[in-house]
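Wed. Picked up where I left off yesterday with Glutamyl-tRNA reductase. The coffee machine is broken again, so keeping this brief.
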Amino acid sequence: MFPIAVGLNHQGTPVEIREKMSFQPSQIQEALKKLRNYPALEGVLILSTCNRTEVYAATTDVEVGIVSIKKFLSAHHGIDEKLLNQYLYVHTLYDAIRHLFRVTAGLDSMVRGETQILGQVASAYQQANDAEVTNKAINVFFQTALAVGKRIRTETQIDQHPVSISYTAVELAKQQYGELQGKGILILGAGEMSTLTIRNLVAAGASTVMVSNRSYDKAVSLAEEFSGQAVRFDEMDKHLETVDIVISATAATHFVILPERMKTIMEKRQGRPLLLIDIAVPRDIHPDVKEIEHITLFDIDDLRGVIDRHHQERELAALNAEKIIEEEMNRFVKWHNSLFVVPTIVALQQKGQQIKDAQLERAIERLGGLTPKQEKIVRSMANSIVNQLLHVPITNLKEYASTSQGHLYTEILQNLFDLDVEEETKRQMTLVNQHISPVRHGRAE
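Structure written out below (tokens, as returned):
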């Protein structure tokens, strides 16, 4: 049973193709069941996010399995297979496992180490289970990948360094106040940046978010999306007197908040601190506002400085993550290769058992008149001889299994002892070693 992965992502595939190739959540169950019925696919899974669409499968025939997945994707999305082939990448066997590990760890994402992908892989695995289209191989692949992803996040903390403006703004707010629940938060602006900021705020536990915008209707629409409160732009001051945090991202071409205005507001606040985060370009908040007592002001340049440091930290964490992936790949390869020597080991043990039994019966018959104790000693000696004779070749074969010469030693042992090993097992073992590439550090693509 061999792993394969076929898909496309943000690297080299335009958004108009990615949009057409995405699966809606409501489509997944039906799509998985259709995919499972294609030739040579024994277990399947679909991973569909905003930046990637990938099909993972366990197949009995690598080449047929790849063809099946491509035909399914072409038919399901109504895209010509020749056009689709321009964007699709294919990973087979251990490269497919390495790719899956890197995806789950966030190393193949647009933002390295991003947090969402681990949950998305877990969700895709659950959907495949619910559709009853997985098998033992898919279960092992994805349970291992999820464990690797969790290990990388725990040991490298790669996802603890925010690298987006909106996320960093929220992280700064958390650093200033700790928990955001119960804090009064006012968002100025109702565009894309404000939307992303509110989404991050809500995810961080914020419970009281207000939105103010020159277009009150847009403020209402955005506030309703997140169960917040809309504030008229000309009524902003009375809310500035009560909130704890202001994050500004308007499209204004001039300063929206000036020092004189904030001095009056801070007098009414009577010493209560106020955090202002200006993520607009051009800036919304006059830089002199930071000179006012009890105000802390961060602007876009402050955030970019934090992001640059976090990028460096993520890259360092990514290097450590790649090392962990190679450790896990070596462990996986050793385990997986051991599966192919098991039939040979079993056949060798059975051969030894048959020879021992035949020779024992003949010897006992010739000796005749052995007492039970004497017969027990003879049988024990025969068992000991066979076990000790086979111990070294079996132990060495297990060691060789994880090397590029594993199949060679296995075949030699089969031929030397004339072992009866199923032809399908031999074929699978040969195919793995034809496709295997050395376990290496870096991208699978």
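Quick read: Residues 434-445 have pLDDT under 50 and may be disordered.
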